Amino acid sequence: MIEAHLPALQVVLPLLAAPLCVVLRNGTAAWALTLATSWAALAVAVALLVKVLADGPISYELGNWLAPWGIEYKIDAVNAFILVVVAAIGAIVVPYAYASVRAEIEEERIYLFYCMYLLTLTGLLGIVITGDAFNIFVFLEISSLSTYVLVGLGRDRRALTAAYQYLIMGTIGATFILIGIGLLYMMTGTLNIADLAKRVPPLAGNRTVLAAFGFITVGASLKLALFPLHHWLPNAYAYAPSTVSAFLAGTATKVSLYILIRFIFTVFGASFAFKTLPLDIVLSVLAVLAMFVSSTVAIFQRDIKRLLAYSSIAQIGYMILGISFASVTGVAASLLHIFNHALMKGGLFLALGCVMLRLGSVRIEDMHGLGRTMPVTMAAFVIGGLSLIGIPLTAGFISKWYLVLAALESGRWYFAVLIVLSSLLAVIYVWRIIEVAYFRPAPRSEAAEPVREAPASMLIPMWVLIGANIYFGVETSASVGVARQAAAMLLGSGP
Amino acid sequence: MSVTVLLALTLSLPLLGAVLIAMSNGKPNQRETVTLLTAVALFATVVALTPKVLAGERPYLELLDILPGVALAFRIEPLGMLFALVASFLWIVNSIYSIGYMRGNKERHQTRFYVCFAAALWATMGVAFSANLLTLFIFYEALTISTYPLVTHQGNEAAIRGGRTYLGILLTTSIGVMLPAIILTAYLVGTLDFRAGGILAGKVSPEMGGLLLFLFMYGTGKAALMPIHRWLPAAMVAPTPVSALLHAVAVVKAGVFVVVKLIVYTFGIDYLAKLTNTDWLLYISGATILIASTIALSADNLKRRLAYSTVSQLSYVIMAAAILAPISAVGAAMHIAAHAFGKITLFFAAGSIYTASHKTEVSQLNGIGRRMPWTMGAFAIGALSMIGVPPTAGFVSKWYILLGALDAQSTVAIVVIVVSTLLNAAYFLPVIYAAFFRKPPEGDEHKHGEAPLPIVIALCITAAGTIVLFFLPDIPLALARAMAGVGG
């Protein structure tokens, strides 16, 4: 009985828990509720993935309204995979949030933080699980609006401008997606994705469909911070509370990327996007620019959260590059990197949160000697950094491997060269931090309160993510297997 | 014990040692005892494996699949066996030396030093026994990273700068060039295993084969082919035991070991011999030998001179492999062992001089042989081995390389060997001459004798080893022949 309603539970659980937080009006109680809800959501996501891998796609009609008319939740290997990524990051971050949020947000606002956190989670999970194009937009708005609040809760007053910037850019993106969906509805009379997938390809030459394609692609690119539409991201990540940076880095852009993948491959079809239209060239050029320009900018950042934000834009470039190959290996590499990047960036931002807690700053000049004062945190940072570079035995290596393999398979070897060159830029920006943390003496002047290690409630979630970086760098059959299966499905006959 | 268990032991002992050393922090005697015990246990395990491998066994151990069809796996073949024997034996000697050096110079962070050393040896074993290119790559990178804290041990500005060059060049070449080459190989061939006779034949076009050779040779930054050799002199900021073991044995030898292993087991000598676009490797390695020797000639800093001598000696191995005659491949393998013993002796001597007298420049060494007879005697033996004079190990390997060059009628190689021998003599013999026959400068108030006993013991062992290898080269030679497929 319950099992049949898992798809609904995935979204309903956090959605119902969110207003409960407001009713509770107590930070700790709200945290406990969020903890229980997010882990339940993760359990549901894992159960769904297991079921999908065993029995094939699940279709769930909300309120028993039949598919093309009612809202359908449709779960296949692709979104089941992304659901697990989002829910896992969402669940691991919560135990960490307890101490971090208390340090960074005023006491009387903490319950509001958790309310917004749950709403963001609802929105992100909803976007991924739904099989209805308009429903995607609705959940996109839920997640976006609540994310603006989360970013704006940052202690720094610049968080407000960052949230405002994010609000404007995000709204433009969401509106573009909505216009695109509207145009498609005009042409086909349906909003159901599976239905659209049948009706859109025959209309391939139609100008309205072309316009819809343009709006959706640009809108999704804005939301996923594809270079050069990324300007909102560095500020948002840098000034948001630490927990939020980690949560968003692992989930928000990934979900937008999912929207792009879903529309390109399922609704419009790969041949329309890549053969009729030259999307592969557009995407690959932008991806390469993202990889190089953002990595170079990252090298010159002094605020480490900002540095990681620019690095994220570069990493999104890798994911987009994988898509632009339009091959099973390419898309699999892209999906794999969504997962692996969530692990490494999540872990790195959590490490920075620990630093923020103890130092009140994440600027590089304040991190001198941190390797000795906070050894557990910095060790995690080093491993996360190695994964970002793509050193073997870390998850980042596996992503790079498949990405380069995809480039070679498609015969575009020069992309293989570019991927490798850009990952060398990562060596520079990661090593700058490690050098400062391990080779510069810690400042002695403020001996009043020596810097201590962060509390275990923060260290454990951080190490869970960092440990996952190593686990999925060694034991890849699960992650690679699912990514390949999902990619094959996207490029096959369609769902 | 079964061979597989022994193989697993060689890979787990150094790691276990590293953990135990880390736990002995603050207890120097316990820490150094653990180091020595681990080193001895490792060497004993490797020795126990040797007769089995000589008898034709190829122990295999597979841990897990990292990528579909590519496992984290180990297989002992003769070349890896030889490399592991040399590295694990010299680790024992080096540990003895380190104790004297680190205590004598009152170095800081000694626990970190010994932990990283054990980790580096672990990575070296992994490189030596890897069964496929991916496993090799993993341990190759592990070796780079575990040695970085050793290179930057002093923690001062110069060390950080040296470390940056070290890491920069090694990571850039391995991630930037070697990894794409590995992925390209996986894509073209479908396997990454090391097999006798190579895996490329029949699968990879000659043009692609030439490209792969270029990528692999320049991807292996540790082999220090010019112009990617600069990390090696930069790494000389490290304490001398590090330079000795890592930059005479483990790291650089891992580099040339990879080169030989790739040429023999991935490309296959026969496959390469059929390609027409591989001559450049011979020329580049020959040029590296001569240029590096010339730089060594003009270097006054003793460690710098030794560093450039290493660059040139490494290219001997590469050139020997690039001659593509089986007999010169034997010479390449032998030179890995011979150069290791000779060069570690030289580095030990340099460190010994520094510890006793704080002298670092060649021009300061007048008359030092009278005060430090053991050190300078060992130095002389090491130097003779570099030049290739009997009765030292360097003669044996040079003999085989020359045989191969004659066999392949490679005029270039013969000329390079002859000229470089003269250059080697020109930069080593004056040092020995000055040390023993020049008078010490007037007013040299600094009275010192020999270095501490552990240092002297260590350098005498390696100097003796250099001579023993000349008279009893049977085991390394047998391994080298088995690798190249040349009958006894």
List the helices and strands and how they pair.
The complex is a heterodimer of chains A (495) and B (488).
Chain A: H1 6-24, H2 27-55, E1 58-61, E2 72-75, H3 77-104, H4 110-129, H5 133-152, H6 158-188, H7 193-199, H8 207-223, H9 232-239, H10 242-268, H11 270-276, H12 279-299, H13 304-324, H14 328-359, H15 370-373, H16 375-389, H17 395-409, H18 413-439, H19 456-474, H20 477-491
Antiparallel strand pairs in A: 1-2
Helix pairs in contact in A: 1-2, 1-4, 2-3, 2-4, 3-4, 3-10, 3-14, 3-19, 3-20, 4-5, 4-10, 5-6, 5-10, 6-8, 6-9, 8-10, 9-10, 9-13, 10-11, 10-13, 10-14, 12-13, 12-18, 13-14, 13-18, 14-16, 14-17, 14-19, 14-20, 16-18, 16-19, 17-18, 17-19
Chain B: H1 3-23, H2 28-54, E1 60-67, E2 70-75, H3 78-104, H4 110-129, H5 133-151, H6 157-189, H7 206-219, H8 231-234, H9 240-267, H10 269-274, H11 279-298, H12 302-322, H13 326-357, H14 368-371, H15 373-387, H16 393-407, H17 411-437, H18 453-471, H19 474-484
Antiparallel strand pairs in B: 1-2
Helix pairs in contact in B: 1-2, 1-4, 2-3, 2-4, 3-4, 3-9, 3-13, 3-18, 3-19, 4-5, 4-9, 5-6, 5-9, 6-7, 7-9, 9-12, 9-13, 11-12, 11-17, 12-13, 12-17, 13-15, 13-16, 13-18, 13-19, 15-17, 15-18, 16-17, 16-18
Description:
The complex is a heterodimer of chains A (495) and B (488). By secondary structure, chain A is mostly helical. Chain A is 77% helix and 2% strand. Chain A has a domain at 278-495. Chain A has helices at 6-24, 27-55, 77-104, 110-129, 133-152, 158-188, 193-199, 207-223, 232-239, 242-268, 270-276, 279-299, 304-324, 328-359, 370-373, 375-389, 395-409, 413-439, 456-474, 477-491; strands at 58-61, 72-75. Chain A has a two-stranded antiparallel ribbon with strand order 1-2. The mean pLDDT of chain A is 87. Chain B is globular. A two-stranded antiparallel sheet of chain B has the order 1-2. Chain B folds into 2 domains: 1-173 and 226-263, no CATH class; 278-488, no CATH class. Chain B has 488 residues and is mostly helical. Chain B starts with a helix and ends with a helix. Chains A and B meet through helix 17 and helix 18 of A and strand 1, helix 5 and helix 6 of B.
